[in-house]
Amino acid sequence: MSNPVNNRNKEKISARALVLDLFTTGVRDTLSSNDIRKIGRAFGLSDLALRTALTRLRAEGKLSTAGRGIYAAGVVEDPVRERAAVWRSHPGRRIAWDGSWVCAAIKPTSLPRTRWRRTQWALEFNGFRQDETGLWVRPNNLRGGAGRMASDLVALGAADAMLTARMDHVSGAHARRFSALWDRDRLARSHEDAIHMLEHSLRHMGSGEAVAVETLLTGREAIRRILRDPLLPAEIAETATLDRLVACMDAYDAFGRKAWADFMDQL
């Protein structure tokens, strides 16, 4: 019987994402084009799609060559991949909250549409939500404060003209309105669902190459949910469910790395 978790996630991976994941997760320091094609076939990807991905990623500097037909990670920085590589430390970005906020503001019509979409994505990825006045806000409870946040947003592609600042004095009404911008129940349910997804995957694991496919796809979905957590302070939302998800993913990752070592030995 097919695994519903596997089928649901398998449709979502592209050749580009798979190749990047292979190097982000440290399957091996270098991989031959032949090995990458064999791995890709296990995920239902065509040789053409994989060749195209390899060519484009090399041109972008996200892959490098270590010999004829041998690929390694590139030298171009990718802040999203860098954050994904250290997903275990994501909750550790939180510090004690002093009640202040980080705000961000820019006029959408002052930017090209694609730049505005990237700016909006960077804000949401860093846990900002937009108030009814149009102001983007989040609690000032991450390491580095507003200054570090401004740099992180620009590194993720946000417009460098955007104002990012710390707000220390907010009225009680505004603080309550800001705190209600996040759907805390939905966030907790998302983490619980991810924990159940990981547990279900382990209980219904297949065999052979299917194990490698399952662990990568299911693991990347769990990591996506970890990284999308806005890291709200305990004064606004409970934090224990994220910690449980990280612990569950840590155990799953250990299983997955063993499965991938076996899979790679059989290529």
What count of helical segments does DSSP give?
Answer: 11
Please trace the helix and strand order, writing H or E for each element. Answer: HHEHHEEHEHEEHEHHHH
Approximately how much helix is present in the residues?
40-55%
Give the helix/strand class: alpha+beta
Mean residue pLDDT: 92
Domains, number: 3
Strand count, sense and barrel status of the largest sheet are: 4 strands, antiparallel
Organism: Camelimonas lactis
Protein name: Phenylacetic acid degradation operon negative regulatory protein
InterPro entries: WH-like_DNA-bd_sf
Would you write up a description of this structure?
- With 267 residues, this protein is an alpha+beta fold.
- Helix 1 packs across helix 10.
- A four-stranded antiparallel β-sheet has the order 5-6-4-7, covered by helices on one side.
- The protein has helices at residues 4-10, 15-24, 33-42, 47-59, 79-85, 113-125, 145-155, 172-179, 184-203, 209-227, 240-265; strands at 30-32, 63-65, 70-73, 101-105, 129-130, 136-139, 163-167.
